[in-house]
Specification:
Blueprint (H helix, E strand, L loop, with lengths): L2 H4 L7 H23 L1 H39 L18 H13 L2 H15 L12 H13 L3 H19 L12 H4 L5 H36 L5 H49 L2 H17 L1 H5 L10 H27 L5 H28 L4 H11 L1 H10 L4 H32 L6 H19 L9 H7 L3 H21 L27
Membrane topology: Multi-pass membrane protein
Pfam family, one: BCCT
Organism: Halalkaliarchaeum desulfuricum
Amino acid sequence: MNFWKLFGLENAETNEKLLFFLTGAGLIALGTIGIASPQWFNDAMLGAYDWVLHNFGWWFMILGFALLMFSAFMAFSRYGEIRIGGEDATPEFGLFGWIAMVFTVGYSGSIIIWGVGEPASIMAYPPPEPWPVQSSLESLSLSFMYIHEVFPGLAMWYPPFALAFALTIYNKNVSRYKISSMLRPLLGNDDYGKLYWFVDLASLIAIVGGIAATMGFSAQVFTALLDDVFALPGSQLTYVLFGIIGLVFLADVWLGLHKGLQNAAKITVILAMVSAGALLVVGPTLSMINIGLDATGVWLNNMFRLSFYTDPTTAGDWGHYWTSFWWAWWAAWGIFVGSFVARVSKGRTIRETFVVLVGVPGVLLWMQHGIIGGWVLSPGFAEPVSNAVASDGIPAGIVEALSLTQFGVLIAVLFVLVITGYVITSLDSTVFILSSITLGTENPNPRNRAWWGVLLAFVGVMTIELPLFEAMQAFPVVLAFPFTVFIVAIAAASYIAARDYYRETLDGTAEDTLVTQRAPQDSQEPAAEDD
């Protein structure tokens, strides 16, 4: 077999081959070091993590707010009427399949993992007094969770990438399906070849940081559940579970977006709703509802105060270790989630895409975090769960909460299934975008996608061996930080693309009527091989 065809690179340019092998070699080196010297790797990552957040936590906060304002402007100004792909474009996916893919790809197993971990951690280590707002510690803890994973977090990091990709690739007819293509409306097509290549390299590294953290969190939670809830050999069976995930992932790759990822996303959404409903029934229901509602009031009444909380009068970085960490993780995920959302949203308007990317998931996440957060913050749960998190990490806190819950083993089974579904859909969408960026096409071939999956699985296996759960937090912060310098330029370029596209296609007799024509995609490969 032809060597390049084996890796799905037979039609790739030299710089694209270099991009694939250089990033792949970095992943292999990362995984090898982590497996061979987990304690050293753990300490090195945590050191880098501390340095970035202490010195540049402010940057993530300011950038996040700027992107929030930008996203809202783009969605609700006249540019929100622009249809991705042109006026004649029709949606490729049904409403439920579209929402399911956006939701499962964008929000992952953090709903369960951090839905327990963040409120319980804040209970164990609250912000220094005086607190940023007056409330009970339980409501303050859950309101921070709402800030970070419901709003404004949702509206900051995904929409700018989705809009930039949609406008440049599908409406401005930029032929190469790459992150660097988002900069072409700003910089032009010529004279920036090396810069564009480095932008793509930085984006691949940042994407790897985001998905590596998610896989690492999931792996250590799997191990804890298998060990302590089911009394099984956790580490060994987690390897087996990741092997099964890999097989399902490969099947999804060959089935393609329509039959593979879309169906996996639908199943995962259903499982997530079933697990949340079951937990609400068997848990301390009344306390869960009351805590969730009270925290909602604290959140809505103090949204911007909590979003910018830095506690500047003490020597600590409490605010940065929560808010800035979350914004860095969103930034790492935003690159591939936004790009993927643009891919599956052709035929929808920018405003529709914003609503489905922010509004619908926001409601679902508010409900689920209210249930999960209310569960672990209820009387009889809050103290033992927060103590377990403080002494042994978030996986131990999840195990403790399950041990205190009636039918906890059943809930644990549902949690394993839901997190597995999120890992599969996140991995599938990640490798889809990694391969797309590498090859410059919206329909990358299955062979290249499968290789990216193997490389990411190798990193996932490495994370099982890391001694501290907290080391996973370093991946998105450290690896996404260099890419943040390009995010402002990408936002500016997407505005220019929207403005120019609107002017070029404007009906001269009706100022607010948008007349668009679908841009030809001559350079794109047909989807037949995947679907």
